[in-house]
Amino acid sequence: MTLLEELQSHVGSAFVLTDGDKTAFELDWRKRQQGKALYVVSPQTTQEVAMVVKSCLAHGVSIVPQGGNTGLVVGSIPDESGTQVVLSMKRMKKIRHIDASNLSLTVEAGCVLQTLQEVAQSHGLLFPLSLGSEGSCTIGGNLSTNAGGTQVLRFGNARELCLGLEVVTAQGEIWSGLSALRKDNTGYDLKDLFIGSEGTLGIITAATLKLFPAPQSTLTALASTEDLEGCIRLLKLAHEHLSAGLTGFEVMNQFSLELVRTHFPNLAPPFESSPWCVLLELSDPQDSSHAATLLENLLSAALEQGAVQDAIVSKSLAESKQLWHIRESITLAQAQEGLNIKHDISLPVSQIKSFVEHTDRALEELVEGVRLVNFGHLGDGNLHYNVQAPRGFDHKTFLTQYEDKVNEIVYQQVKSLGGSISAEHGIGSLKLKSLPNYKDAVALSLMRSIKKSLDPDNIMNPNRVIELNPS
Ligand SMILES: Cc1cc2nc3c(=O)[nH]c(=O)nc-3n(C[C@H](O)[C@H](O)[C@H](O)COP(=O)(O)OP(=O)(O)OC[C@H]3O[C@@H](n4cnc5c(N)ncnc54)[C@H](O)[C@@H]3O)c2cc1C
Questions:
Q1: Per-residue pLDDT tens over the stretch 61-98
Q2: Which residues of 337-372 are buried (b: 16+ CB within 10 A; e: fewer)?
Q3: Taking the domain 3-88, which CATH number applies?
């Protein structure tokens, strides 16, 4: 049988796209790259995934797993060769089991993140992973990229929220590792190999996730500060005053909010002339008056010490959502403004100010009038430090002329301060060539050994994350 006939017999002809418009699966979220798929296959069960992998392996065809295709490092679309199969996980969306006493939830990999938050909520519980793309990204994609988001400060990233996995290996075997245990020291932690591997080692088909008691009250505040130093001082005060109640701490520079004002005028971010703003969230197991007192004490101390200039506190859930909406619209506003050079860096919080001062200056010297969209999860030491062409400069020309030079300035500075060139988005193909310059050589060699051992035929998302034979 041909590969096509085998795939059709495994999942049904209706779920193997062969020609026609496959754009939704071939174009990356930022519309920077367009690949070409041989076929797009959409299995509905783990057994079907296993059969698809076995057939692709037998025919020597590589596989690109895809969830919501919201990844930002060009890892979920096929290359341009027209020889790769895209394996879409979108039909695998069953909620398999919720165990409220164990605070755990077992779901299939194609479940959309927001659906899982809603399932937890309907049981009076919380699944805290939260990202701007939560309406379309899938839990399989979240785990494969070890996604971060806005609640890492308190609950950790996707890795820390996962208790067990079910995986189809590169040989088409099914590893049933859906443990719901919080303690299990019976050898190597295999799930941690697959989490964050961006589909290069196997296909995550299901996961058991941690749930938490839902907080009684959640309050959000927006504070304006004169400089980044003010944001960092507010963070320290927030840790002292709110302790584990501090569940979000996001910063936004003036230009990132200006983009939201321009492209989403109905969101009307306040504090128009403020150089920086902080979005801060408090989740409290007690009632809202207790939370309000905690937040009031924090903001009074911050105003008194001159860390912040002004602040507003949400008075309702709707107001809180509106404030978060402003923060979450920055990525979309940037996309509307035009192509830019994105960075997703992390540093010890103590090094952030030095990084921003030095890098802002170096980039201005490189390109006069360059515009910096600087925002992100300051509480985790994670900035989305994005570089936009000067006003009036053609975006494409800017990228062609400056992308490599800008990346070098940013990444060298990150390296010199002990940071990472990818905090939460992953490596994909976008940062494939850069990684060896900024990661320990022994670590790279161990990564290659793992890849060769688990996927000796290199059929799982090849040329993503790690180059096997770098030139
Ligand atoms: C507006 C916006 C905001 C964002 N905010 C954040 C943020 O705050 N934090 C953050 O970390 N990311 C963020 N992202 C990036 C992105 O949403 C995350 O990386 C998300 O986890 C990707 O999920 P997905 O289902 O879309 O995966 P995809 O984009 O489809 O795939 C991502 C990678 O995982 C692999 N993969 C997907 N599913 C599987 C599977 N089941 N098994 C094996 N491999 C698989 C793919 O091959 C690819 O390498 C944002 C993106 C957008 C567009």
A1: 999 999 999 999 999 999 999 999 999 999 999 999 99
A2: bebbbbbbbbbebebbeebbeebbeebeeebeebbb
A3: 3.30.43.10
DSSP string, 262-277: HH-GGG--S-TT-SEE
- When the pLDDT of each residue in the chain is averaged and rounded to a whole number, the result is 96
CA 229 – ligand 1 centroid, Å? 32
Q: pLDDT-based confidence at 427, cuts 50/70/90?
A: very high
Closest CA to ligand 1's atom 23: 141
Q: Which whole number is the average pLDDT over 24-44? A: 95
Q: Is the CB of 137 under 6 A from ligand 1?
A: yes
Q: Counting every residue, how long is the chain?
A: 471
Helix (H) or strand (E) segment spanning residue 306: none
- 217-331: CATH, from 3.30.70.2190, 1.10.1040.10, 3.30.70.1060, 3.20.20.70: 3.30.70.2190
CA distances from 192 to 159, 177, 183, 436 (A): 7, 11, 14, 22
Count the alpha carbons within 13 Å of 468 in the hemisphere toward its beta carbon: 15
Q: Where in the chain is the domain with CATH 3.30.70.2190?
A: 217-331
pLDDT score for 315: 83
State how far the Cα of 426 lies from the Cα of 158, in Å rounded to an integer.
Answer: 13
Q: Among all chains, which residue has been given the structure tokens 């754009």?
A: 23
Regarding the beta carbon of 110 and ligand 1, being less than 6 Å apart is answered no
Is residue 279 within 8 Å of residue 219, measured between CB atoms? no
| Mean pLDDT, residues 204-213 | 98
**CATH domain 338-416 topology:** Alpha-Beta Plaits (3.30.70)
Taking the centre of ligand 1 as the mean of its atom positions, its distance from the CA of residue 380, in whole angstroms, is: 19
Where along the chain do the CATH 3.30.70.2740 domains lie? 338-416
Question: Which CATH number does 95-213 carry?
Answer: 3.30.465.10
What tens digit of pLDDT does each residue of 429-444 get? 999 999 999 999 999 9
Q: What pLDDT score does 284 carry?
A: 87
Residues pairing with 384 in the sheet? 344, 375
Residue range(s) in the chain whose domain bears CATH number 3.30.465.10: 95-213
Establish whether residue 333 lines the binding site of ligand 1, counting it when its CB lies within 6 angstroms of any ligand atom: no
For residue 312, give the H/E element and its range.
Answer: strand 310-313
Contacting residues for 68 by C-beta, under 8 A, at least 6 apart: 90, 112, 133, 136, 137, 138, 141
Helix and strand counts by DSSP (H, E) for the chain: 16, 18
